């Protein structure tokens, strides 16, 4: 049916010229001789097209004296409207010209079947762009071309078995349904890649730069054996860049060949290259209009004369120079590196040609998309001011600072023209807000501990004014705590922050996988923070903390502390400590955004000291760092390294003893933030108790963790695309594969107890040795839900100690690890 329809379309023009003139005795043999005068024009066969549209396409009008050629031209013009499959004409003896047309049917529906590799929306966009769409007339020639075009598209994806067929279903009133049937076949696998002409670098080294491979190790999540012409072209560019970045400026891909196997399931790829010689950078200069900045621009170019020529560094230099001019209002500066290659001496000279363009100023900054966050909160992070010269640097810093707030899913800061003035722009800041309030909760299931629950309510953007408020009401089998905190990041216009907190907590350590004691803590404090620059921040804090310890089992490690502080006349194991703690915190933040960063780094360090006058005198040093390195340009794959370390001890003396870190200030390890796969607080030194057996005095070991005064932990993670999700969810979902490692130890532990163990000795090891490392691996998924971040973790320890409590699966609401 489709082919017969196609033939009629192809023959339409021929039919139009084979005119039948009935009762036209006056017609001459020459087509240019007059036939007769037209007295009327009639059109037959119209359904959708109006008669007026046909007459408008014809050069003939009533009253004209026409020839055969005139009528032939008219029919061709009518056919050229693409509304008809065939057009005929005849004139009767009265001069009435009758146009007989067969309208093309109207497309009323487009359906697709069998397309899995290409989304229906994508196919619809392709066919609509070629004029095949609902409401348009059917053009069978164009439809046939479209079939071939879609097959070529599949072939570019490496699906050489793909076939596309169309079925036309004719309906009443000259309508038609068009059905596309796809047989996609399988992706052709790369059987072999051969590179010919390479002498400097081995073939395996060059192929190792490609995304397409003829063999892919299991650990490589980026490479693929599926042939895709677009990726192949990208790999060719990668190959060019590899050589150009190593001085081979005359490198060229001479030819490529892709051979498909007879079954069309595989391809053989051949790449012929010409490497050329290696060149060095001889000299570089700044030319063009620099408005007096040429000397400084020459200085900031990150190139060294005599180095091997590197195309990537040259491109980076272009960007640096353009951004430099952008600081002075020349936001649209173009910098072009013009290379002068000396083949005899194998050197390259570069002239960086600067075209600054117009100097642009910003009339105003406009904010779009904020329904919760106030304009003030956003504006105080924007470094581009109204009425000043447009600065690319200020725009980039503004975007980074807004992203670091963590309030927004997306941030766009774009200059847009304002009316007729070519030298002014409006800076439009478009944001998409994310829920910043959360109900933090956690649910975990351990292999030995069963179900645990906790919860907290917080708002990171309180009332839209940028302050962070939280009310934590935590109750579970080991902890009852209520804490109210508030932090105002802009207590002053200069960015000085002020934070306050008050809390009450009753902690039963024995139910938290720790040694048995009860600590009732209450207190409060404040902190003041100062920005050092855009990325560095320092904060000073002071707190009062009241600790009341009771029901404390006198385990060996606590005895020295207990002897130092307990009342000799007291018959109870209850004591109160009042401490005044000063702290200094330093933050260095170069992450690209506050939630789910993909690039940059952040460091945090803290020094806390219980000052003289406190019941206990101690200090704690803690620090952590996180780094993100994107692997691909789209940041779909990102390597993340996190690490933390802590150390604490006492200072001064008490009752002749050197002060030590109070055991209730110890570090702990294990849980969903550090050391996933291990139960919360389950790693580290355990309690030892004095024990006598058959007249021998010694100790007995337990699984009760007491913590330590030193800790180191780290995590290496690979961020990967979340399976079964569409584009745009990278700011809402994050999937990571991870390996965690960490150790917790007590520098004051007396290793002589190792020889005094009388029971459960498998639980005892040298607690002063930092080499008792635990390791785990697994996968985690975090979803930024309207209720806050929800995390799922599956983890398995691969290095542990006897007595460690493990946890295969955990679920948390309120943490973004």
TrEMBL record:
It is found in: Cell outer membrane; Membrane. This is Outer membrane protein assembly factor BamA. It comes from the Bacteria. Part of the outer membrane protein assembly complex, which is involved in assembly and insertion of beta-barrel proteins into the outer membrane. Its main location: membrane. The keyword Membrane applies. Belongs to the BamA family. Residues 36-104, 105-185, 188-276, 279-357, 360-434 form the POTRA domain. GO terms for cellular component: Bam protein complex. The keyword Glycosyltransferase does not apply. Residues 1-29 form the signal peptide. PANTHER family: OUTER MEMBRANE PROTEIN ASSEMBLY FACTOR BAMA (PTHR12815:SF23), SORTING AND ASSEMBLY MACHINERY SAMM50 PROTEIN FAMILY MEMBER (PTHR12815). Keywords: Cell outer membrane, Membrane, Repeat, Signal, Transmembrane, Transmembrane beta strand. Part of the Bam complex. GO terms for biological process: Gram-negative-bacterium-type cell outer membrane assembly; protein insertion into membrane. InterPro entries: Bac_surfAg_D15 (IPR000184), BamA/TamA_POTRA (IPR010827), D15-like (IPR039910), OM_assembly_BamA (IPR023707), POTRA (IPR034746).
């Amino acid at each position: 049916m489709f082919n017969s329809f196609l033939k009629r379309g192809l023959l339409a023009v021929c039919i139009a010229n084979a005119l039948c003139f009935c009762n036209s005795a006056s017609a001459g043999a020459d087509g240019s001789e007059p036939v007769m005068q037209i007295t009327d024009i009639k059109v037959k066969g119209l359904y959708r097209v109006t008669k007026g549209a046909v007459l408008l396409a014809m050069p003939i009008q009533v009253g004209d004296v026409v020839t055969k050629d005139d009528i032939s031209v008219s029919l061709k013009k009518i056919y050229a409207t693409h509304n008809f499959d065939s057009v005929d004409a005849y004139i009767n003896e009265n001069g009435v010209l009758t146009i007989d047309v067969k309208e093309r049917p109207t497309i009323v529906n487009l359906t697709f079947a069998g397309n899995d590799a290409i989304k229906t929306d994508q196919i619809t966009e392709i066919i609509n762009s070629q004029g095949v769409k609902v409401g348009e007339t059917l053009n069978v020639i164009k439809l046939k071309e479209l079939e071939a075009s879609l097959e070529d598209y599949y072939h570019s994806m490496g699906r050489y078995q793909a076939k596309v067929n169309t079925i036309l279903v004719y309906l009443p009133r000259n309508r038609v349904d068009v059905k596309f049937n796809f047989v996609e076949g399988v992706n052709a696998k790369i059987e072999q890649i051969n590179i010919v002409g390479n002498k400097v670098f081995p073939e395996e080294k060059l192929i190792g730069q490609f995304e397409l491979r003829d063999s892919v190790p299991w650990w490589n999540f980026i490479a693929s054996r599926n042939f895709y012409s677009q990726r192949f072209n990208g790999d060719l560019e990668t190959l060019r860049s590899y050589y150009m970045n190593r001085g081979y400026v005359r490198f060229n891909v001479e030819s490529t060949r892709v051979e498909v196997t007879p079954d069309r399931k595989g391809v053989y790829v051949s790449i012929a290259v010409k490497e050329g010689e290696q060149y060095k950078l001889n000299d570089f200069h700044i030319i063009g209009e620099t408005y007096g900045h040429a000397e400084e621009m020459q200085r900031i170019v990150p190139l060294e004369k005599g180095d091997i020529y590197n195309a990537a560094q040259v491109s980076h230099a272009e960007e640096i120079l353009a951004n430099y001019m952008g600081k002075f209002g020349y936001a649209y500066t173009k910098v072009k590196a013009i290379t002068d290659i000396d083949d005899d001496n194998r050197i390259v000279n570069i002239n960086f040609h600067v075209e600054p363009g117009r100097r642009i100023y910003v009339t105003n900054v406009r904010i779009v998309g904020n329904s919760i966050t106030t304009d003030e909160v956003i504006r105080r992070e924007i470094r581009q001011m109204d009425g000043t010269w447009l600065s690319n640097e200020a725009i980039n810093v503004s975007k980074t600072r807004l992203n670091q707030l963590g309030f927004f899913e997306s941030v766009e800061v774009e200059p847009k023209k304002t009316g007729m003035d070519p030298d002014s722009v409006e800076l439009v800041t478009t944001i998409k807000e994310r829920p910043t309030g959360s109900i933090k909760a956690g649910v975990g299931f351990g292999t030995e501990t069963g179900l645990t629950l906790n919860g907290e309510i917080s708002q990171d953007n309180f009332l839209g004014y940028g302050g962070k408020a939280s009310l934590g009401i935590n109750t579970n089998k080991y902890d009852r705590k209520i804490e109210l905190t508030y932090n105002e990041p802009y207590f002053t216009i200069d960015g000085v922050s002020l934070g306050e907190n008050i809390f009450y907590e009753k902690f039963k350590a024995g139910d938290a996988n720790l040694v048995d004691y009860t600590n009732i803590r209450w207190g409060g404090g404040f902190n003041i923070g100062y920005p050092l620059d855009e990325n560095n921040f320092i904060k000073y804090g002071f707190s009062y903390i009241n600790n009341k310890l009771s029901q404390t089992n006198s385990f060996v490690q606590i005895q020295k502390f207990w002897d130092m502080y307990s009342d000799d006349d007291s018959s109870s194991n209850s004591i109160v400590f009042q401490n005044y703690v000063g702290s200094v915190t330093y933050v260095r933040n170069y992450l690209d955004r506050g939630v789910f960063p993909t690039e940059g780094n952040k460091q945090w360090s803290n020094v806390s000291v219980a000052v003289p006058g406190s019941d206990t005198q101690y200090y704690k040093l803690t620090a952590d760092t996180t780094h993100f390195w994107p692997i691909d340009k789209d940041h779909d794959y990102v390597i993340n390294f996190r690490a933390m370390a802590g150390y604490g001890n006492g200072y001064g003396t008490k009752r002749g003893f050197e002060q030590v870190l109070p055991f209730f200030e110890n570090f702990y390890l294990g849980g969903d933030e550090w050391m996933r796969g291990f139960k919360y607080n389950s790693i580290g030194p355990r309690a030892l108790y004095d024990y006598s057996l058959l007249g021998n005095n010694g100790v007995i070991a337990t699984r009760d963790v007491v913590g330590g005064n030193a800790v180191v932990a780290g995590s290496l993670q690979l961020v990967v695309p979340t399976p079964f999700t569409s584009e745009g969810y990278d700011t809402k979902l994050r999937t990571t594969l991870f390996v965690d490692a960490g150790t917790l130890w007590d520098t004051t532990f007396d290793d002589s107890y190792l020889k005094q163990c009388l029971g459960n000795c498998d639980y005892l090891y040298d607690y002063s040795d930092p080499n008792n490392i635990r390791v785990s691996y697994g996968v985690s998924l975090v979803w930024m839900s309207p209720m806050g971040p929800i995390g799922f973790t599956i983890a398995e320890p691969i290095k542990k100690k006897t007595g460690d409590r493990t946890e295969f699966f955990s679920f948390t609401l309120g943490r973004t690890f």
